[in-house]
Amino acid sequence: xxxxxxxxxxxxxxxxxRALDPRGDADWWAxxxxxxxxxxxxRFAEDSYRRFxxxxxxDLRAMFASxxxxxxxxxxxxxxxxxxxxxxTGARGRFQSVDTTRAHRRRGICSxxxxxxxxxxxxxxxxxxxxxxxxxxxxxxxxxxxxxxASRGASGWRGWS
Length: 161
Prior knowledge:
Elements: E1 2-3, E2 6-7, E3 16-19, H1 26-38, H2 46-65, E4 69-76, E5 79-89, E6 92-100, H3 109-125, E7 129-133, H4 141-146, E8 150-151, E9 157-160
Parallel strand pairs: 6-7
Antiparallel strand pairs: 1-2, 3-4, 4-5, 5-6, 7-9, 8-9
Helix pairs in contact: 1-2
Protein backbone atom coordinates (compact mmCIF):
# COMPACT_ATOMS: atom_id res chain seq x y z
CA UNK A 1 0.00 0.00 0.00
CA UNK A 2 1.61 3.28 -1.08
CA UNK A 3 0.61 6.87 -0.52
CA UNK A 4 2.92 9.51 -1.97
CA UNK A 5 6.45 9.08 -0.65
CA UNK A 6 5.30 7.22 2.45
CA UNK A 7 5.02 3.45 2.37
CA UNK A 8 3.19 1.18 4.78
CA UNK A 9 4.72 -2.24 5.36
CA UNK A 10 2.49 -4.87 6.91
CA UNK A 11 4.23 -6.89 9.59
CA UNK A 12 2.82 -10.04 11.11
CA UNK A 13 4.11 -11.93 14.10
CA UNK A 14 5.57 -15.34 13.31
CA UNK A 15 3.94 -18.20 15.19
CA UNK A 16 5.92 -20.93 16.86
CA UNK A 17 5.30 -24.34 15.29
CA ARG A 18 4.91 -27.00 17.96
CA ALA A 19 4.86 -30.77 17.39
CA LEU A 20 2.36 -32.21 19.86
CA ASP A 21 3.22 -35.15 22.09
CA PRO A 22 0.74 -37.96 21.32
CA ARG A 23 1.10 -39.30 24.88
CA GLY A 24 0.79 -35.91 26.60
CA ASP A 25 0.07 -32.29 25.79
CA ALA A 26 -3.62 -32.75 26.73
CA ASP A 27 -4.21 -29.00 26.89
CA TRP A 28 -2.70 -28.45 23.43
CA TRP A 29 -4.78 -31.27 21.95
CA ALA A 30 -7.90 -29.70 23.48
CA UNK A 31 -6.99 -26.34 21.92
CA UNK A 32 -6.51 -27.94 18.52
CA UNK A 33 -9.87 -29.68 18.89
CA UNK A 34 -11.53 -26.32 19.57
CA UNK A 35 -9.78 -24.78 16.55
CA UNK A 36 -11.20 -27.57 14.39
CA UNK A 37 -14.68 -27.22 15.90
CA UNK A 38 -14.68 -23.45 15.36
CA UNK A 39 -13.68 -23.92 11.71
CA UNK A 40 -16.20 -26.66 10.91
CA UNK A 41 -18.60 -26.36 8.00
CA UNK A 42 -21.95 -24.84 9.03
CA ARG A 43 -23.82 -28.03 8.12
CA PHE A 44 -22.20 -29.83 11.09
CA ALA A 45 -23.65 -29.36 14.58
CA GLU A 46 -21.08 -28.18 17.10
CA ASP A 47 -21.51 -30.92 19.73
CA SER A 48 -21.52 -33.83 17.32
CA TYR A 49 -18.57 -32.38 15.42
CA ARG A 50 -16.62 -31.98 18.67
CA ARG A 51 -17.25 -35.64 19.52
CA PHE A 52 -16.15 -36.63 16.02
CA UNK A 53 -12.89 -34.64 16.28
CA UNK A 54 -12.14 -35.99 19.77
CA UNK A 55 -12.59 -39.57 18.52
CA UNK A 56 -10.49 -38.85 15.43
CA UNK A 57 -7.71 -37.36 17.54
CA UNK A 58 -7.73 -40.40 19.86
CA ASP A 59 -7.14 -42.60 16.81
CA LEU A 60 -4.45 -40.32 15.40
CA ARG A 61 -2.67 -40.02 18.75
CA ALA A 62 -2.44 -43.81 18.96
CA MET A 63 -1.01 -43.89 15.42
CA PHE A 64 1.45 -41.10 16.24
CA ALA A 65 2.53 -42.84 19.45
CA SER A 66 3.56 -45.81 17.28
CA UNK A 67 5.83 -43.53 15.22
CA UNK A 68 3.62 -42.99 12.18
CA UNK A 69 3.47 -39.19 12.14
CA UNK A 70 2.65 -36.22 14.33
CA UNK A 71 0.32 -33.24 14.76
CA UNK A 72 1.55 -29.65 14.61
CA UNK A 73 0.12 -26.49 16.16
CA UNK A 74 0.91 -22.92 15.10
CA UNK A 75 1.01 -20.97 18.36
CA UNK A 76 0.86 -17.18 18.56
CA UNK A 77 0.71 -15.46 21.94
CA UNK A 78 -0.22 -18.73 23.64
CA UNK A 79 -3.16 -19.26 21.25
CA UNK A 80 -3.39 -22.09 18.72
CA UNK A 81 -4.03 -20.24 15.45
CA UNK A 82 -3.45 -23.11 13.05
CA UNK A 83 -2.77 -26.83 12.97
CA UNK A 84 -2.19 -29.84 10.76
CA UNK A 85 -1.13 -33.43 11.03
CA UNK A 86 1.08 -35.63 8.89
CA UNK A 87 0.42 -39.38 8.80
CA UNK A 88 3.32 -41.43 7.44
CA THR A 89 2.81 -44.80 5.78
CA GLY A 90 5.90 -46.28 4.26
CA ALA A 91 7.56 -43.79 1.92
CA ARG A 92 4.64 -41.33 1.86
CA GLY A 93 3.47 -38.72 4.31
CA ARG A 94 -0.06 -37.31 4.00
CA PHE A 95 -1.20 -34.01 5.48
CA GLN A 96 -4.33 -34.07 7.62
CA SER A 97 -6.76 -31.18 8.25
CA VAL A 98 -4.59 -28.15 7.50
CA ASP A 99 -6.43 -25.28 9.21
CA THR A 100 -5.98 -21.69 10.34
CA THR A 101 -8.40 -19.65 12.44
CA ARG A 102 -10.49 -17.25 10.39
CA ALA A 103 -9.05 -14.27 12.30
CA HIS A 104 -5.47 -15.29 11.39
CA ARG A 105 -5.81 -16.16 7.72
CA ARG A 106 -3.78 -14.45 4.98
CA ARG A 107 -0.87 -13.72 7.34
CA GLY A 108 1.55 -16.43 6.24
CA ILE A 109 0.70 -18.69 9.18
CA CYS A 110 -0.52 -21.60 7.08
CA SER A 111 2.49 -21.33 4.77
CA UNK A 112 4.87 -21.44 7.72
CA UNK A 113 2.94 -24.31 9.31
CA UNK A 114 2.94 -26.45 6.16
CA UNK A 115 6.61 -25.83 5.37
CA UNK A 116 7.88 -26.42 8.92
CA UNK A 117 5.68 -29.49 9.39
CA UNK A 118 6.93 -30.91 6.08
CA UNK A 119 10.58 -30.38 7.01
CA UNK A 120 10.11 -31.77 10.52
CA UNK A 121 8.23 -34.85 9.30
CA UNK A 122 10.86 -35.48 6.62
CA UNK A 123 13.57 -35.38 9.28
CA UNK A 124 11.71 -37.52 11.81
CA UNK A 125 10.05 -40.12 9.60
CA UNK A 126 11.90 -40.01 6.26
CA UNK A 127 9.06 -40.13 3.74
CA UNK A 128 10.20 -39.77 0.12
CA UNK A 129 7.13 -37.72 -0.72
CA UNK A 130 4.38 -35.75 0.98
CA UNK A 131 0.85 -35.28 -0.31
CA UNK A 132 -2.08 -33.02 0.43
CA UNK A 133 -5.44 -34.34 -0.72
CA UNK A 134 -7.71 -31.47 -1.71
CA UNK A 135 -10.86 -30.96 -3.70
CA UNK A 136 -10.01 -29.36 -7.04
CA UNK A 137 -12.19 -26.38 -6.07
CA UNK A 138 -10.63 -25.92 -2.63
CA UNK A 139 -9.71 -22.31 -1.79
CA UNK A 140 -6.15 -23.13 -0.69
CA UNK A 141 -4.94 -24.72 -3.92
CA UNK A 142 -3.19 -21.46 -4.83
CA UNK A 143 -1.35 -21.55 -1.50
CA UNK A 144 -0.26 -25.13 -2.12
CA UNK A 145 1.08 -24.22 -5.56
CA UNK A 146 2.89 -21.16 -4.18
CA UNK A 147 4.71 -23.50 -1.78
CA UNK A 148 5.91 -25.73 -4.60
CA UNK A 149 3.25 -28.44 -4.58
CA ALA A 150 2.36 -29.90 -7.97
CA SER A 151 -0.98 -31.30 -9.07
CA ARG A 152 -1.05 -35.07 -9.39
CA GLY A 153 -4.31 -35.35 -11.31
CA ALA A 154 -7.97 -34.46 -11.38
CA SER A 155 -8.56 -36.01 -7.95
CA GLY A 156 -6.89 -32.99 -6.42
CA TRP A 157 -3.97 -34.91 -4.94
CA ARG A 158 -1.03 -32.64 -4.44
CA GLY A 159 2.54 -33.84 -4.15
CA TRP A 160 5.80 -32.50 -2.86
CA SER A 161 8.81 -34.69 -3.38
